[in-house]
Amino acid sequence: MTDLVVAGGGPAGLATALYAARAGLSVVVREPRSGDLDKACGEGLMPGAVAALADLGVTPPGRPLTGIRYVAGTRSVAAPFRDGPGRGVRRTALSAAFRDAVERAGVTVEERAVDQVAMHDDHVEVDGTRASYLVAADGLHSPLRRRAGLEGRPFSHRRFGQRVHFARRPWTSYVEVHWADSAEAYVTPVGDYLVGVAVLTSRRGSFDDHLALFPALRDRLAGVERGSQVRGAGPLRQRATARTAGRLLLVGDAAGYVDALTGEGVALALAQARAAVDAILADDPARYEREWHTVTRRYRLLTASLVGATRLRPVRRAVVPAADRLPGVFSAAVHTLARPA
Asked: If you ran DSSP here, which 8-state letter would residue 69 be given?
């Protein structure tokens, strides 16, 4: 009998597989998509995430990131990272680095989805394969979360993301967060001649419609060849009623997601993967539920508070001026986000 089946070949699923293999568990990953997987995201890894990935043997190529800069019109404020650089990494490069690490670890990856799941007291049957546990790391709109009856009610306020790459030399080593009345734009250097721009907003529209909300950024990118097609994601906020159902554990975005505003997605996925494997080793799924609340608490509270507050236009307009007036507070917040989850 296999110790663990992991549904999903993104960072959360492959990190779970790597931690499981390191602990001596037999593990199989199911991922129906082939090649290097892509996703609409900001593509900036915080220093804590870079360190955690290196510990797993995952070292994707990219550009060093030295901090976070908030921008609103002609006003800006920057906070350098205190504990070493982050890294701007194309999602496909991160996927390739994970696949290399999984291959070196001898983990089996099957190009197929999880279809039939039957739960028993002492094992779970996954498409006829007996396993001790099943981890669902199948993304924001997790089919396994829904089929397990763990889908929470949807949120009325919905946010969406769109991302495009521009083929030009980066003009900064910071992740720039540009603020407008109804959207944020995240600018991340991901290569020597490639810059990613991701827009988050609650309004419908094309990428160009949203980019027009940031005139200085739009003008800087005018006439620059695009290095990728527009890729979208959303609604971003997803709720799970619990993280476990019998011998099924939800990891990563499948476990519930607030927003990409604070840029902690990969670090959170790694922390959840570690916690899930620890619970499996202890044969105690309830332990994972408790640990999930612990490792995600900072992210959930800070991100939900920021998203809620900045729904109000006066608050959004005050974000950058407030950070400029209180640079110590802004720097401390960035330092907190940059640490491992």
From this structure: E
Q: Which residues are registered as beta bridge partners of 162?
A: 199, 232
Query: H/E element holding 174?
Result: strand 174-179
Distance CA 341, CA 339 (A): 6
State the 10-residue block means of pLDDT for the chain, 341 residues long: 96 98 97 90 91 94 95 91 93 96 96 94 93 96 95 83 96 95 94 96 92 96 94 86 97 88 83 97 96 89 77 83 82 78 68
Closest CA to 13 of 189, 332, 327, 276: 276
Q: Collect all residues with Cβ–Cβ distance below 8 Å to 268 and sequence separation of at least 6.
A: 252, 295, 296, 299, 341
The tokens of 210 are what?
Answer: 């949203």
List alpha helices for 188-284, DSSP H: 207-211, 215-221, 265-281
pTM of the model: 0.94
Query: Six-digit token pair at 170?
Result: 């980066």
The gap from C-alpha 213 to its chain's centroid, in whole angstroms, comes to 25
Which tokens go with 151?
């889908």
Three-state SS for 17?
A: helix
Q: What share of the chain is helix, strand, coil (3-state, %, to 5)?
A: 35, 25, 40
Domains and CATH numbers, the chain: 2-48+91-152+238-310 (3.50.50.60)
